[in-house]
Amino acid sequence: MLDLTLAVAHHLLIFALFGILLGELIAVRVGMQHTAVIRVASVDLWYGVVAGLILIVGFSRAIFAAKGWAYYSHNAFFWAKIAVFAVIGLLSIPPTIALIRWRRAGVAPSDAAVKGVRRYLHIEIVLFAFLPVFAAAMARGYGEF
Q1: Cα separations (Å) of 134 from 6, 24, 108?
Q2: Do the beta carbons of residue 47 and residue 20 sit within 8 Å?
């Protein structure tokens, strides 16, 4: 039952993270007003919370669930998935900093600044597509070393 619970929680959190990321991409657009910045900044906080929960549940799943750490730790696709997730996390830092800066400034961001943040969000979404590919390969035993 623990394996199922952790798997369901992990998948739901991943879907939630993707939804938050997509919501940010939709909301961060040229011409956005300061009120939109405040809303997106609060959504971005949830992005961090959900990402942290994914790490906790994901590693709990890898350690305590059915296959165990020995299976995951010797799988290249597991480590590729972790690496991509880490890169996505690092790429989320500049948008977060920008949102905090825009919120504190109390004015609408410039179009150039918005375009810069959107570039990061686009890259995050593209990289996000690799996560289910690596997960599917890993679950089927590919990448064992």
Answers
A1: 18, 24, 39
A2: yes
Phi-psi region of 33 (alpha: psi -120 to 50; beta: other; left: phi over 0): beta
User: Quick one: DSSP state of residue 28?
Assistant: S
CB atoms within 10 A of CB 66: 11
Chain center to CA of 48 = 8
Q: Does the model's pTM come out above 0.85?
A: yes
Sign of the C-alpha dihedral computed for residues 57, 138, 144 and 140 taken in this order? positive
Greatest distance between any 2 Cα atoms in the chain: 53
pLDDT at 66: 85
Residue 93 tokens read as 């830092």
